Inverse folding.
């Protein structure tokens, strides 16, 4: 009977040891979760700050691109032509007076839209508006003559 009590008390002591070690392990896990939550909160705050900066810079970029999109050019399709046509400049920032550009032109005879080469004779200042410019030039042409 004494052996049985000794074995039983040993088992109880071992069980108490396991419970104590589990409590310590749970406490350590809670501490690590708490530290990770603190780190997560600080990272979220930094992310919000970076998003605010990104929105600030992107809105500044949108303002500058909206001004450049409103700029227009005047082109002619034949040498010594008196008729000038207005087109929006768009993202083509390297266009200068005298350059040739590709533009979309509505052919009244066939009724189709064609891509034609035209010579730039005027580039507007930022903020200057043309009521006739509706379509954007396609690109700067590699062709440097009529």
């Amino acid at each position: 009977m004494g052996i049985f009590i000794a074995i039983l008390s040993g088992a109880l002591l071992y069980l108490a040891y396991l419970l104590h070690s589990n409590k310590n392990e749970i406490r350590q896990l809670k501490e690590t979760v708490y530290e990770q939550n603190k780190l997560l909160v600080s990272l979220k705050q930094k992310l919000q700050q970076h998003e605010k900066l990104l929105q600030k810079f992107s809105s500044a970029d949108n303002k500058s691109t909206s001004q450049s999109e409103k700029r227009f050019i005047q082109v002619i399709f034949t040498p010594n032509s008196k008729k000038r046509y207005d087109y929006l400049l768009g993202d083509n920032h390297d266009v200068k007076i005298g350059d040739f550009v590709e533009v979309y032109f509505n052919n009244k005879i066939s009724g189709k839209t064609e891509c034609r080469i035209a010579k730039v004779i005027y580039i507007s200042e930022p903020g200057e508006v043309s009521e006739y410019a509706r379509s954007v030039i396609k690109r700067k042409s590699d062709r440097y003559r009529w």
User: Anything to note?
Assistant: The radius of gyration is 37 Å.
